């Protein structure tokens, strides 16, 4: 077989070799490290992963791209499995409000927060949303992210805007190097219009929106913001179960700020992931472990909300909950596309080991999007999505924080990003 791309002499090749499912407990520390590694790619697939030289069965040809991995660390493409990628406007004015002590939920309750992004997203045209989201995707790709989840939720009762967001995400999925998985999150806030009558809005989501999202194949997942003053556990359950009936896989924003029993709900409903979980209960964590619900943790959000409270990642891993990590990129609670920073926060603040962090950001992220058969590890037959970091080892990427360590990104077997230095 002839290879299109070969990367050899890789100091640290992190394969994440193992079962095609979310990893738990000590599995989260088994990263399949190969020193002096070599990887061969053909078309959009990985055809060889090993040590030293290629076997005789794999040949190079005159057009094969040869990349030297000396001094480099190679990992599977990073998976950012929780973002609010497509939205209008930005909310930098909330920084000074938060510095003065304003709380996220108070800003939302007062008609700001998500509601102000709803207005900006309604006003933006398809092309404006597309261009803004594309800029963010370019940045994400540069940080080594090859697969991204994108939620709607900035249209709310304005279903056309919800659809517009999902259509932008789906169009970018066709046009951009980065693979995008779409999530319907109409239940992101109670619209101001339905403040005194949230039940009407819930009925609209269940009876009108979910069937249409499913029929038009606009999304793979359905998500709900289960939070104090937003959607209750009962409301969330109803919405997620309606989604399931229409083939939308359940995810939930759970116990982000107040302890709500969101983790318990996720286990009960059979959510693929429960996300945030800063205030998750011990019982909820145990129930998630039992049901194999992935904890999708978002430390960038804790950092930006200035609460000083982070999810108990180590406890979750110890309890047997598979842990994933994502940016939660959005204009309010986490305005960053930097997955590498999130990985550093996970380690420095939540005390996850670098091995747990890379597992969370690759194969467990893939499982969070039900893509564990295709991506998330470097193994023969999987998609040729990988990152070459200009870093001598994994620890270095996480320890030397806040900068971009990416040297090159290969996505679907094609060179998609290369670091350039433009110092004049
Ligand atoms: O995951 N909490 C709800 N949704 C987002 C924030 C969205 C926003 O503030 O615009 C989150 O934190
Ligand atoms: Fe979110």
Overview of the structural elements:
The protein is α/β, with parallel strands linked by helices. The chain has two domains: 5-76 and 377-418, Urease, subunit C, domain 1 (Roll), CATH 2.30.40; 79-368, Metal-dependent hydrolases (TIM Barrel). It has helices spanning 93-99, 104-109, 114-123, 126-142, 159-175, 198-215, 233-245, 262-269, 282-291, 299-305, 313-318, 339-348, 354-361, 363-368, 394-399; strands at 5-14, 33-42, 45-51, 65-68, 73-76, 78-80, 145-151, 179-187, 221-226, 249-254, 273-276, 294-297, 323-325, 386-389, 406-411, 414-418. The strands form two sheets. Strands 1, 2, 3, 4, 5, 14, 15 and 16 form an eight-stranded mixed β-sheet that branches. The chain has an eight-stranded parallel β-sheet with strand order 6-7-8-9-10-11-12-13. The protein starts with a strand and ends in a 6-residue tail after the last strand. Residues 82, 84, 253, 328, 330 line the site of fe (iii) ion. N-(iminomethyl)-L-glutamic acid binds next to helix 3.
| Fourth-level CATH superfamily of the largest domain | Metal-dependent hydrolases
Structural class of the helices, strands and pairings? alpha/beta
> What share of residues are in beta strands?
15-25%
Tally of individual domains: 2
- The total count of strands amounts to 16
CATH class of the largest domain: Alpha Beta
Helical fraction equals 25-40%
Largest sheet geometry = 8 strands, mixed
SS field, number of helical segments: 15
User: CA-to-CA gap between the ends?
Assistant: 44 Å
Are any ligands bound, and if so which? N-(iminomethyl)-L-glutamic acid, fe (iii) ion
